Amino acid sequence: MRREEILALDPNSITRLLTGEELFRIAEALGALWQYDYQAAKEGRYGLHAELKSGKHSDGFFVSRILLAEPNMLEIIARQLAIIVHKETTNYRVPLPDCIVGIPTGATTLGEKLAEILGVQSATMEKVDGRIEMITELKPGDSIMMTEDVVTRGTATREAIASIFRQQPGAIVMPWIVAIINRGRLESVTADASKFLICAIANTPMDDWSPEECPLCRMGSTTIKPKETNKNWHRIIRSQCDDKQ
Questions:
Q1: Which residues pair with 216 in a beta bridge?
Q2: C-alpha to C-alpha distance for 219 and 131, rounded to whole angstroms
Q3: Domain range for residue 93?
Q4: What is the pLDDT of residues 146-203, one digit of tens each?
Q5: Radius of gyration over alpha carbons of the chain, in Å?
Q6: Which one, of 30, 62, 32, 67, lies nearest residue 208 by Cα?
Q7: 147 belongs to a structural domain
Q8: Distance between alpha carbon 184 and the CA centroid of its chain, in Å?
Q9: Rounded distance, CA 70 to CA 66, Å?
Q10: Which of 2, 32, 79, 228 would you call most buried, defined as having the most Cβ atoms within 10 angstroms of its Cβ?
């Protein structure tokens, strides 16, 4: 599917959950997903690979901001998550949450749109001095569900849960997190002595290694921080097409 076709998609025309492969094709066509091309490396085109915020090196990277930039794609992805939410509330035999919050900053807008679609309140979290803080005032007994764009190790999820209970110990956090992509092989995240199931549209393991153990470095590929600048993102996407870095 070409970019023009994707941007012309009517959200009302998609009534089922996309497969992981379908989501990846859309993300790649829009320039939101990069994965290292091991076949190109066998042909001597080693290109670049990603340096994550943690300092680890990786063979995959997803930028939700690019995928969600167009209004129709934001609507489509939010509706996909709504399908998952309805499934989980049915499985757990519970009502919809009182509010939904997108973990900052990648899922902020997505959480707002999902809340709108489900007809519940949108809550707000922000990063304050590098730490996630719950901004919306919750009352004891309020139920809240979290939305994430990408789950790797669940670090942001655990921090977000902690911020909710710091602000309101009597809040009820739904036992699942909806996400676009689960890239870290996790089935759940443990926080506050409870497990929170990861429910993603797509589950795609992307490997990461410490710099000392990175096999891509040993092959001859060099690292780049994909989200540091727009130029970096374009460089990593094209680096194995013509090996121009």
A1: none
A2: 37
A3: 78-203
A4: 999 999 999 999 999 999 999 999 999 999 999 999 998 899 999 988 999 999 999 9
A5: 19
A6: 62
A7: yes
A8: 11
A9: 8
A10: 32
